[in-house]
Amino acid sequence: MSTHGARAERWNATRWPAIRARGMWRFVLARSVFAWGGLMLAFMAVAMSIQLGIDHPRLPLVLAIAVPLCAVGGACWALLTWYFNERIHRALRSRN
After folding, report:
1. Which of 15, 33, 39, 81 has its CA 20 to 30 A from that of 70?
2. What's the confidence (pLDDT) of residue 37?
3. Are residues 59 and 52 in contact, defined by beta-carbon separation less than 8 angstroms?
4. In 3-state terms, what secondary structure has residue 55?
5. What are phi and psi of 23, to 5 degrees?
6. Is there a contact between 85 and 12 (Cβ–Cβ < 8 Å)?
């Protein structure tokens, strides 16, 4: 097994149970909507401000559209992450 695979297994065996115990929806909100979605929104805000210019009249509209899109994208990412970590966790438990 590769070093990365062993490291991922150790992480899943040690850290995932604590994250899992806090619940899926807390994970989705904290890790994705706020973390991933927030970072993506900040990146898009900077990129659009550079592209359009801060004084562009449609910049607020573009950013208002980006907020829910980034939140939904973050939620989808977190749900997929949760699903795959759960599969790995169950496989590791059944192997032992």
Report:
1. 15
2. 84
3. yes
4. coil
5. 110, 150
6. yes
Contact 93, 9 (CB under 8 A): no
Output the pTM of the full model.
Answer: 0.76
Grade residue 3 by pLDDT with cuts at 50, 70 and 90: low
Q: Are 33 and 77 in contact (CB under 8 A)?
A: no
Q: Is the pLDDT of residue 14 over 70?
A: yes
Q: Which domain holds residue 53?
A: 3-95
> How many Cα atoms occupy the beta-carbon half-sphere of 72 within 13 Å?
5
The region, left, alpha or beta by phi > 0 then psi within -120 to 50, assigned to residue 2 is: beta
Task: Judge contact between 92 and 13, C-beta under 8 A.
Answer: yes
Q: How many domains does the chain have?
A: 1
Residue-wise pLDDT for 34-81, tens only, equals: 888 889 999 999 999 999 999 999 999 999 999 999 989 888 989 998
